[in-house]
Amino acid sequence: MTAFVYQFLAFAYQVADVFAFLVLAAGGLAIIFGMMGIINMAHGEFITCGAYVTTALVRAGLPLPVGIVMGALFAGVLGIALERTIVRRFYNRPIDSLVVTWGVSLIATQGALLVLGSAWTSVGTPLGSIGFGDYSFALYRLVMLAVAIGVLVGLYLLFMKTRFGVHARATMQNPAMARALGVPTERIYAQTFGLGAALAGLAGGVYAPTLTLSPTMGTGFVVESFVTVVVGGADVLTGTAPASAVLAIIRAACTAAWGQVFGLIGLLVTVCIVIRVLPEGFSGWLMRRRA
Amino acid sequence: MTLRDIPVLFNGPQTLGRGKLFWLGVAAVIVAAAIYPQYAERFAISNTAYFGVWVFMALGLGLIWGYGGMLSFGQTAFFGLAGYAYGVIAINLGAAHSYPFLALICALAIGTAFAAVLGYFMIYGGINGVFVGIVTLSVTLAFATFMNQTAGPQWRIGRARLNGYNGMTRIPSLSIDWLDGHRIRFEGATFYYLVLGLLVVTYLALRVLVNSRFGNVLVGTRENPERVELLGYDVRRYQLGAFTIGGFLASLSGALYTAWGNFIVPASMALPAAAMPIIWVAVGGREDLTATLVGSFVVLYVFQALTVVSQEYALVAIGALLVVTVLIAPGGYVIWAVDMASRLRRRAGPSPPLSDPALKARTQRG
Predict the structure, then answer these.
(1) What's the domain count of chain B?
(2) Looking at CB atoms within 10 Å, which of B59, B144, B177, B275 has the fewest?
(3) Exposed, middle or buried, A280 (CB in 10 Å: 0-12/13-18/19+)?
(4) Span A57-68, mean pLDDT?
(5) Which among A90, A94, A107 is the nearest to B319, CB-wise?
(6) SS3 B151
């Protein structure tokens, strides 16, 4: 009996771990997609950026939480800069925006390889672990879950309770009308892109202690974040969050049964099925049911 | 159909370049390419064949993206799948008889079938726009991840070890036995002529395809899918057709590449390899076959010249080239140059665009 409880706990822990990963990895991408309808192919590079800034600051002696926040802020500022210089020219050409952000990603990755070298060792995971029977759980993973939930709650408050949120939702629904009513849509776009980039930087910072840092590490996040956004659809709260939960269960089950790689393949098969049944993802489906 | 109708097949509104001068130029390029091995060194011949191998994938992406309006980031998935399939089958069958050629055919069938299945799920699932890009990219990256972890003796198919990150090696070259026992091994100049021949056939066949009814509907779908649907066409069938043909051409690249170098590695499906076709096609011009062809060769050549200095610098430069292209000449430089030239000519004096007899015949017929 106790063995079963522990097994269940271990599975729940795996699910929570993947859920946190998917929410953090995909949140920034989903926000940008939901607002502007474009996919930021340089998403992985903002994650990398956050991870490097965090690690550099922790090595310089700052506490980890400060490093993570600074990493997110730095990525956010870079995001706004990218939006103002390049991305804003592509809002009416979504496919070209994919290509151009991809070019930026290539430049960033390879440029970082030239400047930073191939790999940095991580700063090490804080907080130790806790044991239950034969299993032991790293406490830092629970912190990640808390951060992921914190991000979701924070986004809910931001979009529902603030002036920015009202403007942002108005712009999302009907940009022309919002502009006519005096919403500074250009600025909303820039801020949203910055917010998405900052969330990517946050994900990088949170995962920095657990990974070997390399300029190409962003690639390790992109497949999962793409998959989550495709399954979730355009809205973070009604799309990314439930999609992350469902995908986390599928991935944890496949991984437990057949190993890591099949966890990833399970995700892809799920995507193929979901897009066949719900082309607009979870959020589109929920929206239609509500309407 | 008479002899006079034949030019109509190859010319039309979906391709640039028509008239005697253009086709004389094409003939001249083919002749020059055919006599080139007489005057070049072995390495140069092999290297030019290597460039040619990639161009099939570029033309396929041009069809999917330029003509069909679906940006696939995952052509390398078909490339890699066909490459691995060729390797596994060729190693298992051995190099005797025409077995490597059989392996090529099987590899093409496997790659194309996979493209058809993936295309079915995406296109009939109603996925479009940017989602096609990220789903296809996810597929190719997942493939690369999967192949990366196939190190160790338990990952073998028959006699072929998959070898994980290091990839498969010692894959037999392409060869055919004729009925009289005469054996052709496609290596060096012979391989070059094979690639050249296939390129000419592919280029001409695609010209016929895009100027046919199929091509017109496909371009219509790119411009306005709802309108084409209201005209009574099932746009999904045309999109799936284009996607499958593009997958076939990427598979051809993959199988030929594996036969050329006798190896295949997972990195050929991962980033940055997955994005190279996008760059070849975007820089030359994706909405025209000739522009894609010319652009691909130029970018491949420049990229290799830069790689000699440093791989990272080359990738940064090529990334910058892509960003600048999309910013200032979104249609690609070849198309941009053609536009400029025709604008200059129009300023010099009016030249009626319908003066071409082939086009006139088409207009009168339709």
Answers:
(1) 1
(2) B177
(3) middle
(4) 91
(5) A107
(6) coil
Within a domain: residue B309? no
Q: Does B101 lie at the interface with A, CB-CB under 8 angstroms?
A: no
Which of the pair, B136 or A119, is modelled with greater confidence? B136
Query: What interhelical angle do A2-36 and A185-207 show, nearest 10?
Result: 150
Q: How far apart are CA B332 and CA A33, in angstroms?
A: 26
Cβ burial of A131 (10 Å; 0-12, 13-18, 19+) is exposed
CB-CB contact of B268 with B89 (8 Å):
no
**Is the CB of residue A99 less than 8 Å away from at least one CB of chain B?**
yes
In the DSSP assignment, the letter for residue A120 is B
> Rounded distance, CA B303 to CA B297, Å?
10
pLDDT at A131: 67
B89/B96 Cα distance (integer angstroms)? 13
Of B125, B135, B146, the CB nearest to A261: B146
Q: Is residue B305 part of a domain?
A: no
Domain span including residue B253: 3-272
Whether the Cβ atoms of residue B294 and residue B334 lie closer than 8 Å to each other: yes
Q: Do B320 and A219 touch (CB under 8 A)?
A: no
**Helix, strand or coil, per DSSP, at residue B332:** coil
Distance between CA atoms of residues B194 and B200, nearest Å: 10
pTM: 0.88
Would residue B42 count as lying in a domain?
A: yes
Please indicate, yes or no, if residue B140 is contained in any of the structural domains: yes
- Cα separation of B104 and A170, whole Å? 55
Label residue B362 by pLDDT band (50, 70, 90): very low
**How far apart are the CA of B342 and the nearest CA of chain A, in angstroms?**
25
What token pair was written down for B274? 């997955």
| pLDDT for residue B257 is more than 90 | yes
Per DSSP, the three-state class of B157 is: strand
Distances from the Cα of B292 to the Cαs of B124, B181, B200, B206, B239, in angstroms?
28, 40, 14, 12, 19
Is the per-residue pLDDT at A286 higher than 80?
no
Is A117's Cβ below 8 Å from some Cβ in B?
no
Q: Does B312 lie at the interface with A, CB-CB under 8 angstroms? A: yes
By the 10 Å C-beta count (0-12 exposed, 13-18 middle, 19+ buried), A173 is classed as: exposed
Distance of CA B170 to the CA centre of its chain: 25
Q: A2-290: what CATH class?
A: mainly alpha
**Residue A285 touches chain B, beta carbons under 8 Å:** no
Buried b (16+ CB within 10 A) or exposed e, B267-302: bbbbbbbbbbbbbbbbbbbbbbbbbbbbbbbbbbee
3-state SS, residue A40: coil
The ipTM value here is: 0.84
For residue A119, pLDDT beyond 80: no
Contact B195, B256 (CB under 8 A): yes
